[in-house]
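Record 1 of the preview.
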Amino acid sequence: MPIYNGKKITVEISGESHGKEISVTAEGFPEMRIDFDGLSAFMERRKPKGRYSTARREEDVPVFSGLSDGVIAGKFSASIKNADVRKEDYADLYGKPRPSHADVARYIKYGTLDFSGGGEFSGRMTAPLCIVGAIAKQYLKEKYGTQISAYVSEIGRARGRSYKDGYIEKRLADVSGKEFPCIDGEEEMLSEIEKAINGGDSVGGRIECIVYAPPAGLGGSAFDGLDGKISSLLYAVPAVKGVEFGEGFGFCSLLGSKANDQMRYDGGIKFDSDRSGGILGGISTGSEITLSVAVKPVPSIKKEQTTVDLINKTTAKIKITGRHDACIAPRAVPAIESAVALALLDEVLSEK
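->
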């Protein structure tokens, strides 16, 4: 099962998309009282909403063990029951991996032929990640005033506002209360999803994340870089295929005079811009950390596709049925926040 071994924190996620339950076990978290109302609201953000999401409906209410009157005092666990399971939807796909899905990689690695729901590689497994991510966010906000907010900035050809526009304010980036987590462009983005649905297809997107008031001095050089650590956790979120900080790939076309974040002294070090995304040399500067991830289109689409029949050793055609998101980006937003929160919390605890 997937295990994250940080400097101070250990997180193990177990279960499968169409198994009886999924769970998470964590160790190394600081002693703190969990805000269960806040946790519930965070988990609600991950749930499917509207026609653009999967028809699968799960309550996603975590049941905890290892707490002391709601307080983390060491190792703890949380489990979620899978109730709305329809494994029969995948009967025709036995031995036939979905193109661009982890199915074929599972076969190569483990010899798996039953691809029901994607197993431990499913986006369903971000639910346990969001449990510990929500708790990490609570601690960072309470102890350091650090807030983490992600939102969808692009789906297909439709774009909303981006931190690269240079004028997103804190109140604009806090979209946790919105059903569709974006800053402008919601109608156009939903239209892109609708077009994909009507064509039996799926569509990708971009998620951006801003960390407000991050502690300065987190991370280190080379293999200890904070951006590298955050990236490794972001890639644990299924469908993430690219990560950039600040201007990211935009640096390729800039001159140094335009790319550099110039400084001045005003009661301390002040940056006139934040194109580097709040991290220099792998160390947080105290400026807002800005990053974005590329989310690929969901592989499970209704159009006919070519794959292999691993039982009969032939090329085959498949049409995927069942319940799937046409665009996973909106529901992946809290998972992105969770990955960033875990990375930052682990660094904060190790620095202490």
